[in-house]
């Protein structure tokens, strides 16, 4: 019959981590606010339950051996998860229902986000909405600080994370509407030859994606202006100080500039699109994730896409799909 290993005692695990961090039973006892004998007993019980030793007793101070190092590597996330479970249970007991912690990139939060909140506002579900950059949101999801996230890049090589494609949008060249009125035959090649490219900052995912696409197109514009947000970027475009490469959703986010700008299509390419994904942990929040996918596509098809087509008739038909 196969031996069943006993579950690890979390208090003993905390004592083990404290000894590793402080280098002694005495230091661990001070850190945890318990007696030294309590720490010694916890370590002895942990080793007994697991049927192995965790420290090299010949070294001074005691250092974890191979088994101890393996446990130390796994212990941190385990303790963090246990603490998160405790917090979430407390939250649920106070509210009567577990809130969904929903994170999304800024352009999604500012455009699709309000419609999603409006659509689910009639239900009893509680939603805590975060916005930010894709790398930060992905890390928050991995660290269980978020339950569901909408990102523009999948950076988590984690089989426990489900990645659902939401939609994609094409990069387009953006120019002052007055310039297009003056030169009906203006195209992106002429723009790139005559004007500087006004960029999103390279620390953002969209800035990095646009930079790759610009190099692919042979656009070699010196770095002069870079912005974190679309509003200041479009203010320079409308002032005819340069052209930009952006996306329909970003333009809709800064839609008060739509009367002052025009768009020109760029060559179709895999690098020429930005993809959105909905991420959540396998077996968790499946129903909510399905609801968000359905609502997002409905908002894009019924509200945002028709409004953009009216405001920017030059927008390619497949700009949002």
From TrEMBL:
GO cellular component, one term: cytosol
This protein's record includes keyword Transcription regulation: yes
Residues annotated as domain HTH lysR-type: 8-65
Single GO term (MF): DNA binding
Domain of life per record: Bacteria
Keywords, ordered alphabetically: DNA-binding, Transcription, Transcription regulation
Pfam families per the UniProt record, alphabetical: HTH_1, LysR_substrate
CDD domains: PBP2_LTTR_substrate (cd05466)
Family, similarity comment: Belongs to the LysR transcriptional regulatory family.
Protein name: DNA-binding transcriptional regulator, LysR family
Organism: Paraburkholderia caballeronis
Source lineage: Bacteria, Pseudomonadati, Pseudomonadota, Betaproteobacteria, Burkholderiales
